[in-house]
Design a protein that fits this description.
Elements: H1 3-12, H2 23-30, E1 35-38, E2 46-52, E3 57-64, E4 83-85, E5 88-90, H3 94-109, E6 116-123, H4 134-144, E7 150-153, E8 165-167, E9 169-170, E10 173-181, E11 185-186, H5 196-204, E12 224-231, E13 238-239, E14 242-249, H6 257-267, E15 273-281, E16 284-285, H7 291-304, E17 309-311, H8 319-322, E18 328-331, E19 345-347, H9 348-363
Parallel strand pairs: 3-6, 3-7, 7-18, 8-17
Antiparallel strand pairs: 1-2, 2-6, 4-5, 5-19, 9-16, 10-14, 10-15, 11-13, 12-14
Helix pairs in contact: 1-3, 3-9, 7-9
C-alpha cells in the first residue's frame, strides 16, 4: 500500500472505543518483519510490535487506533468512508489520530536501517477510560526490561500551520468534589435554616477562575475551574440542606493536591464542608535538550521550514503514562482544529509531510 491508501483504509475501519476495528491484526500483518506482542485486557486490544536493527536507542512510535463516536447528524460525508475533496480527507479519526497512525506505520515499514530498535505501541482504549490500554502494555514492557528510551506519540499537536508545535509535556488534571453542609429550612423562615448557598456565594469570587500558581515558560498557570454547583430539591419554598460543587485544576509541576487542599481550606474557612480530590493524570515535561526533542525539531524544520514551538497546552494523552517510567516522550502530529468534531478532516499535504518528518527522524537519528 501507498501512504494515502493506507490512511484511507484505516479511516474505513470503524474503531470506536474500545473496538479496534481489526486494525491491530492488520498492522501486525502489515509489518511482517517485526515481532508482535499482544497485551489484550478485558475488552481492550493492545499491540506492541518491534524490530531490533542493531545496537543503540529504542525509539517507539505510540498512539491509538480508537476514535470517539461520530454522532448521527451534521456530517456531509460518511464518517467511516474516507472522502477526499479539495485537498482534504474527511472522516472520523482523520486528525485524531489515524493520520499519525498511518504516517508512522508506513515510515517504520519502509525502514531498512536504524541504529537501534524501532517499535509501535498501539491501543484501542485511549479515547475511553484508558484503564487497560497503554498503561498495561507499559507494565508488560517494564517487567520484560523492554521499555523504550524515547517515544513519539503522534497526537495532533499543530495549531495554525503544520509544524508549528510539538508537545514536550502535559499538565496534570486534579478533580475536586466539595460538599458544603447547611440545615434545610422553609424559604419563608430563612433564619431558622442554614442555607449553604448563602454561605458559599460571597466566597466564590475569590475562588472561581483563580490562578493557583504563576506558571512558567512551558506551563500556563494552574487555574481553579468550577464545573458544577447544585443544591436543593428544585422547589422554590425549601432551602437546601447541603451544596455540592465540582471543580477541575489542570495543574503544572508547581501545584499539587497539597496546594489545592490549602487553597480550598483558606477560602472555606469556618464552613462545615468536605473535600475529596482525585487525580487522573500528573504533569510532566521532557527536557528540551534531550535527543528526541532535538531530532524531531530538526526533522520538522527540514520538511516544513518551520522551527516548532515547545508546548504543554491541551488535555491529556497516553504520554502521561510514559514519562513517569523515565521514557523521554514528545508528541507531534497534524493540526488539531477539527478533532472530535463533525466533518473531521485533515489535509493530504499534512499527512504526506508528517510521514516525511517521521522518515527523516528515523534516518537521521543520532
Amino acid at each position: 500500500m501507498q501512504l494515502l491508501e493506507l490512511f484511507k483504509y484505516m479511516i474505513s475501519c470503524k474503531s470506536q472505543t474500545p473496538d479496534d476495528g481489526g486494525l491491530l491484526d492488520f498492522i501486525e500483518n502489515y509489518l511482517p518483519d517485526f515481532k508482535a506482542v499482544r497485551v489484550d485486557v478485558e475488552d481492550v486490544k493492545n499491540l506492541f510490535i518491534y524490530k531490533k536493527f542493531g545496537e543503540g536507542d529504542h525509539l517507539c512510535f505510540a498512539g491509538h487506533v480508537d476514535v470517539v463516536p461520530a454522532g448521527s447528524e451534521g456530517w456531509d460525508t460518511n464518517p467511516y468512508e474516507a472522502v477526499e475533496k479539495d485537498g482534504y480527507i474527511y472522516g472520523r479519526g482523520t486528525q485524531d489520530m489515524k493520520s499519525g497512525l498511518a504516517a508512522f506505520t508506513q515510515a517504520v515499514r519502509e525502514t531498512q536501517e536504524f541504529k537501534g530498535t524501532l517499535s509501535l505501541l498501539l491501543t484501542s482504549d485511549e479515547e475511553g477510560d484508558a484503564f487497560y490500554g497503554t498503561v498495561e502494555v507499559l507494565k508488560y514492557l517494564e517487567k520484560e526490561g523492554m521499555l523504550p528510551d524515547y517515544a513519539v506519540v503522534a497526537e495532533p499537536t499543530c495549531e495554525d500551520v503544520f509544524g508549528d508545535a510539538i508537545k514536550v509535556g502535559r499538565r496534570g488534571s486534579i478533580n475536586g468534589y466539595i460538599t458544603v453542609k447547611g440545615k434545610q429550612g422553609h424559604a419563608a423562615y430563612p433564619e431558622k435554616g442554614i442555607n449553604p448557598i448563602n454561605l458559599l456565594a460571597p466566597r466564590l469570587a475569590n475562588m472561581a477562575g483563580v490562578d493557583l500558581d504563576n506558571g512558567d515558560e512551558f506551563f500556563s498557570p494552574s487555574k481553579f475551574v468550577i464545573t458544577d454547583i447544585r443544591a436543593g430539591m428544585q422547589v422554590t419554598n425549601v432551602t437546601p440542606n447541603e451544596l455540592k460543587m465540582m471543580f477541575n485544576v489542570r495543574n503544572t509541576t508547581l501545584t499539587t493536591q497539597k496546594e489545592v487542599t490549602a487553597f480550598v481550606a483558606k477560602h472555606l474557612d469556618g464552613l462545615d464542608y468536605e473535600l475529596r480530590l482525585t487525580q487522573g493524570s500528573y504533569p510532566f515535561r521532557t527536557d528540551t535538550d534531550t535527543k528526541v526533542v532535538k531530532n524531531i525539531d530538526e526533522a520538522i524544520e527540514k520538511v516544513t521550514g518551520i522551527r516548532p514551538k515547545h508546548s504543554t497546552a491541551g488535555g491529556t494523552s497516553d504520554a502521561r503514562f510514559m514519562a513517569p517510567l523515565g521514557i523521554k516522550v514528545i508528541e507531534f502530529g497534524v493540526r488539531n482544529d477539527t478533532i472530535h468534531s463533525v466533518n473531521e478532516r485533515t489535509s493530504v499535504k499534512e499527512v504526506l509531510e508528517l510521514y516525511e518528518v517521521f522518515k527523516n527522524l528515523i534516518v537521521e537519528w543520532k
